[in-house]
UniProtKB/TrEMBL annotation:
<feature type="compositionally biased region" description="Basic and acidic residues">
    <location>
        <begin position="144"/>
        <end position="155"/>
    </location>
</feature>
<feature type="transmembrane region" description="Helical">
    <location>
        <begin position="63"/>
        <end position="81"/>
    </location>
</feature>
<feature type="compositionally biased region" description="Basic residues">
    <location>
        <begin position="28"/>
        <end position="40"/>
    </location>
</feature>
<dbReference type="Pfam" id="PF04977">
    <property type="entry name" value="DivIC"/>
</dbReference>
<keyword id="KW-0472">Membrane</keyword>
<protein>
    <submittedName>
        <fullName>Septum formation initiator family protein</fullName>
    </submittedName>
</protein>
<keyword id="KW-1133">Transmembrane helix</keyword>
<feature type="region of interest" description="Disordered">
    <location>
        <begin position="144"/>
        <end position="164"/>
    </location>
</feature>
<keyword id="KW-0175">Coiled coil</keyword>
<feature type="region of interest" description="Disordered">
    <location>
        <begin position="1"/>
        <end position="40"/>
    </location>
</feature>
<feature type="coiled-coil region">
    <location>
        <begin position="82"/>
        <end position="111"/>
    </location>
</feature>
<keyword id="KW-0812">Transmembrane</keyword>
<dbReference type="InterPro" id="IPR007060">
    <property type="entry name" value="FtsL/DivIC"/>
</dbReference>
<feature type="compositionally biased region" description="Low complexity">
    <location>
        <begin position="17"/>
        <end position="27"/>
    </location>
</feature>
Length: 178
C-alpha cells in the first residue's frame, strides 16, 4: 500500500525510491525529507528563489539592479537637498544682515532725534566745521603733537603747490623731463 501509484524501477526490486536495501538512509534526502530540508532553510530562501524565477535574474543581477535604483534615488534627492541647504544658509545670512540694518536704523534715528535740538546743531557746527557766532573771537590751541602731524601733509602739498595747477605741473614734467 505504501507504493500506491508508483512504478517500480528495475534496480529497486520493488522497494520504495530512496530507501536502501539494508535500511540505511542515503545521503540524498527523499522527497519527504526534501520538504523538511526546505522548511529548515527558511521561507526567505524559497521566496528569493521564487522571485529569481519570476524575474529570471540571478542574485548578482538583482543586487546590481537594487544598487542602480538606490543610486538613482540618491541622485534624485541630492540636487533638491543641496538647493534647500544653500537657500537655508542664504536666508540665515540675510536675516543677520537685516538685524544689523535694523540696529543701524535705530542708531540713525537716535542721531536724528539728537540733531533736532538747535543747541546740538550749534555744537556740531562749532566742533566739526569750526564755526563761530558773530562777535566771538576764535582761538586755536595747537599742541606739539598736533604741530608735527600738521607739518607732514604740508611738505607733500608744498611740492604740488610750487608748480601751480595740476596741468602746469604735468606740462613741466613732460617738457623738463623731471
Amino acid at each position: 500500500m505504501a507504493e500506491r501509484g508508483r512504478a517500480r524501477g528495475r534496480r529497486s526490486g520493488g522497494r520504495a525510491r530512496g530507501s536502501s536495501p539494508r535500511g540505511l538512509r542515503s545521503p540524498r534526502p527523499t522527497r519527504r525529507g526534501d520538504r523538511r530540508w526546505r522548511l529548515r532553510r527558511g521561507l526567505t530562501v524559497t521566496r528569493a528563489s521564487g522571485a529569481a524565477k519570476v524575474l529570471g535574474m540571478s542574485t548578482t543581477r538583482r543586487a546590481a539592479v537594487v544598487a542602480i535604483v538606490v543610486c538613482a534615488l540618491a541622485f534624485t534627492i541630492a540636487v533638491p537637498l543641496r538647493t534647500y541647504l544653500s537657500q537655508r544658509a542664504e536666508v540665515a545670512e540675510e536675516e543677520a544682515r537685516q538685524a544689523e540694518l535694523r540696529q543701524e536704523v535705530g542708531r540713525l534715528e537716535d542721531r536724528k532725534a539728537e540733531l533736532s535740538d538747535p543747541a546740538q546743531v550749534e555744537a556740531e557746527a562749532r566742533r566739526r566745521l569750526r564755526y563761530v557766532m558773530p562777535g566771538e573771537t576764535p582761538y586755536m590751541v595747537q599742541l606739539p603733537e598736533d604741530k608735527a602731524a600738521a607739518e607732514r601733509p604740508e611738505e607733500n602739498q608744498s611740492s604740488v603747490r610750487r608748480g601751480g595747477t595740476w596741468y602746469e605741473t604735468l606740462w613741466d614734467g613732460v617738457t623738463k623731463g623731471e
